[in-house]
Please model this.
Amino acid sequence: MNLLSHFILMADYNHRMNIQFSNVIDNLSEEITNEDLGAYFISIMGTLNHILVGDIIWLSRFSKHSNNYLALKSILELPKPNGLNDMIFPEFSSFKIAREKVDLSLSNWLKYEVDTIDFTKNLEYSSTKGIISTRNFGELLSHLFNHQTHHRGQLSTLLNQQGLDVGVTDFLVEIPEISTKQENLQII
Model:
């Protein structure tokens, strides 16, 4: 498995899932999206914001890993969260615009600016509490995608409790099918 190709698939999966969730949530009232549903991040909007806040924090850190990471600079234009519970986009319409901006920046960064060797290097960063840490960059990117998937699972449950279905959520959709059929060979 090529790690860069895998991360590109994960970014494509992330984008597809965010579009599917947006299409369902677009039809909900503000009252429903902000209702306390007993979730860890209280509501649908709370959970959406938490995922986006995590992405903004991590991608802002990643933007400093290389001078080649120009696509991530647009993330720095978004509101800077102070903590993981911040509701930086309380209205779904503004959230949706920011979500799309982050998803496209992530995808463009991976497709056009990252070098596979970057994943072997370490990234030093400061946590939201000011604690300095150094960890493997590739593992941190894996964490970003795992974090998104984990909380979208929670979001899927919240929507299901409202009687809503977001559709197929499996990563399998992004994994290319490998043909096992022997192609017609012409003997010359």
In short: The chain has five helices and two strands. The longest strand covers residues 122-126. The two ends are 34 Å apart (CA to CA). The CA atoms of residues 51 and 150 lie 9 Å apart.
